[in-house]
Each structure stands twice: as C-alpha cells, then as structure tokens.
C-alpha cells in the first residue's frame, strides 16, 4: 500500500511538472524526483499506510502489553524479547527468494512490500512509544536489511541482459527508496546500488544499440536513395532533414533513443549529477567511435567507387548529426554546468571522411593503372 501510494505521488509530480512547462518540451532533468518529491510526499497526509480502507493495523494491544509489563516491573524483559523476535522476523522477511526469470516481477514486488511493511511498523512503534524501541537498534536492523537487499538484488540481476527489465526493477526500487526515506530511514546505500545498476543498464543499452548499429551498417548497400519523380522527392524531403542521407535516419533515431532511455533510467537520482552525465557521454562516445565509426571504416575496403562515395556522404551525415546529439545531451543533462557539450566523435567522423576521400584517390589511381596496362601503345 505504501509503495503504491509513493508510485502515485511520483506520477502526480510528473504531471505537475508537465503542467508547469506546458507548451515546452519536458526534459528528464526537469523531472528530478529526488529534489521535488519530498514536497509532494508531504501532501495528503491522511493517506496512512497502516490505517486506510484496505489496511488497518491496531497498535493498542502492544501499548496494553507495555502498560501491563510496566505494572509488573518486567518492561525490560518484554523489551528484550520483542527486540529479539523482531530480529528473527526481519531475517525471515529478508530470506525470501525471488526470481526475475522470464521478466516476472511478482516475487520481487512481494519482497519489497514485505520489507516496507516491516519497517513502517518499526518506525511507527519507535515514534509512538517511549523507552521501548531503541533508535540505534532499529537503525542497525535497517542497516543489516539494506546490506542483505543489496546483495540479493545484485545477485539476482547477475545474468540479466534485458534493459527493459532493468528499467522496471529500477522503478520499483526507486519507489521503495522514496517510501523508506519518507519514514526517516537512511537510503544512501540503496542509492549507491541504483548507481551501480545505472552503470550496468548503460552498458546493456550500449551493447543492444551497438549490435543494431553494426547490423544496419553491415546491411547497407551504400547506394544512394533513388527517387523516380518529383513527388517521391518531395516526400523524402518532408520525412528527413538530410535529403541525401535519409536511409541513415533510423540510426540517428536509435542513438537518440539510447540517450533518452538512459535519462529515463536515471530519473529519480537527486545526487551524483556529474557522474550520470559523464557516464552517458562516455558510453555514447564509445558507441559512436568504436561501433558506428568502426563499422563504417571496415567498409572502406570496398573496391566499388560508388560505394566509397556513399560512405563519404554517410560520414558527413553522422558528422552533422552529432550536433543534434550534443543538443540532446545539453537539454537532458542533470548537472547545472553551463556551456555546450562537445562530442569527440564529431572529429572522428571528420577524420574517417578524409580516409574515405583518400580511398577514392587510391581507387581512381588503381583503375587508371589497370586501364593503362590493358592499352597497347606503340611508343
């Protein structure tokens, strides 16, 4: 119930920010749940996770037991027994196992709900009693729980290679983190876990994107797009910004999607702005230079002159479209650093274009030599 309530608050915050920027594109950085979320969480306090239409937890029996043991002079014994029982119960909750096999998140959701329920009760008991639950004891219990959760989640994701599943898990964990933070628990270790997941998510996205990039490059025949009449030509001009390179539009859209999906995953992190922006830029540079530019360079071995000419046109396209990628990075970046973002890949494409031009001269010279060898001249 508490997690569902938090998720609804997250959606409410997103809707509020979109209304604030109505008529303007909403960037991922403007939907930073880590900064504005507390304001929204403080609204509608009447929605108590332990006292609502679906759930009602009655703490009166506990308070009665405390009063009875006070009268009997055995409060210390009752406190010690309660603390020991709660430790055992926490161990049982955290020992539960779940699997992400086939993308099924049901077990993981149940696991998170059980942990949330346990520690909400701890927070309520701590704040509604005196000289009963030790704050240090509860914090130690929570610290042990976060250690165990970090270990279990990390191990469960060890063999996961699905970026979409990572994103679904991230959304659940972020809701969990904000819920527990709202009850006063320290969540730094869980945020560190999310940053490690972000790093893996970026790597998975890059791997998935690079495979598709190489596939498109390898399947390209490197022949200009042919239009048969003026109507077809006008259709192409309307559909694409670069009339000679319209075949490459899916590649640029794929890379833009890579950038947007990264920031979608990063949504909810209030700290480590620079780390996230730097991580994305590093992954994007690697994708553009090693995978995209590298795949194109391998095509330069072609002996077909028209293909090499088309490779030059393609390289010019990517050199230009890098400017769009840079604008997208500036628009979505989390850090408050000013100035533009410069991708080194732009220069790499320019350098590769020079190599392709040299390849044309080599092919022309080769063809000239072959022609002269075939000709019979009477010197």
Plain-language structure description:
This protein has 379 residues and is mostly helical. 71% of the residues lie in helices and 0% in strands. It contains 13 helices and no strands. Helix 1 crosses helix 2 and helix 4 packs parallel to helix 6. The protein is rod-shaped.
Mean pLDDT: 80
Strand-residue fraction?
A: under 5%
Terminal-residue CA separation: 96 Å
Strand-and-helix sequence, N→C?
HHHHHHHHHHHHH
Which ranges are low-confidence, i.e. pLDDT below 50, for 5 or more consecutive residues?
A: 16-47, 241-245
**How many strands, which pairing sense, and closed or not: the largest β-sheet?**
none
How helical, in percent, are the residues? Answer: over 70%
Envelope shape:
rod-shaped
Give the structural class. Answer: mainly alpha
Work out the helix count. Answer: 13
Say how many strands there are: 0
Over all CA atoms, what is the radius of gyration? 30 Å
């Amino acid at each position: 119930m508490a997690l569902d309530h938090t998720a609804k608050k997250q959606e409410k915050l997103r809707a509020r920010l979109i209304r604030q920027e109505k008529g303007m594109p909403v960037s991922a950085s403007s939907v930073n749940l880590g900064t504005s979320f507390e304001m929204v969480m403080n609204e509608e306090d009447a929605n108590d996770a332990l006292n609502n239409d679906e759930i009602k937890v009655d703490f009166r029996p506990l308070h009665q037991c405390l009063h009875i043991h006070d009268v009997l002079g055995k409060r210390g014994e009752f406190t010690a027994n309660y603390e020991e029982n709660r430790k055992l119960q926490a161990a049982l909750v955290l020992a539960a196992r779940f699997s992400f096999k086939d993308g099924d998140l049901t077990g993981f959701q149940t696991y998170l709900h059980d942990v949330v329920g346990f520690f909400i009760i701890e927070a309520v008991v701590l704040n509604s009693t005196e000289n009963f639950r030790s704050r240090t004891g509860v914090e130690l219990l929570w610290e042990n729980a976060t250690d165990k959760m970090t270990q279990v989640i990390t191990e469960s994701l060890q063999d996961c290679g699905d970026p979409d599943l990572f994103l679904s898990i991230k959304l659940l964990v972020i809701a969990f983190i904000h819920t527990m933070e709202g009850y006063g628990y320290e969540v730094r270790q869980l945020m560190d876990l999310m940053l490690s997941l972000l790093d893996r998510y970026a790597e998975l996205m890059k791997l998935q994107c690079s495979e598709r990039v190489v596939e498109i490059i390898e399947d390209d025949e490197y022949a200009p797009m042919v239009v048969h009449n003026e109507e077809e030509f006008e259709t192409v001009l309307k559909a694409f910004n670069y009339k000679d390179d319209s075949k490459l539009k899916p590649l640029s859209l794929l890379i833009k999607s890579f950038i947007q999906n990264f920031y979608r995953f990063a949504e909810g992190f209030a700290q480590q702005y620079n780390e996230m922006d730097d991580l994305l830029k590093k992954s994007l540079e690697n994708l553009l230079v090693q995978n995209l530019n590298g795949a194109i360079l391998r095509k330069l071995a072609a002996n077909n002159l028209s293909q090499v000419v088309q490779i030059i046109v393609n390289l010019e396209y990517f050199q230009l479209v890098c400017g769009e990628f840079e604008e997208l990075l500036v628009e979505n970046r989390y850090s408050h650093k000013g100035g533009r973002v410069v991708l080194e890949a732009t220069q790499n494409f320019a350098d590769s274009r020079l190599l392709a031009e040299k390849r044309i001269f080599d092919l022309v010279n080769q063809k000239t030599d072959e022609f002269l060898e075939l000709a019979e001249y009477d010197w």
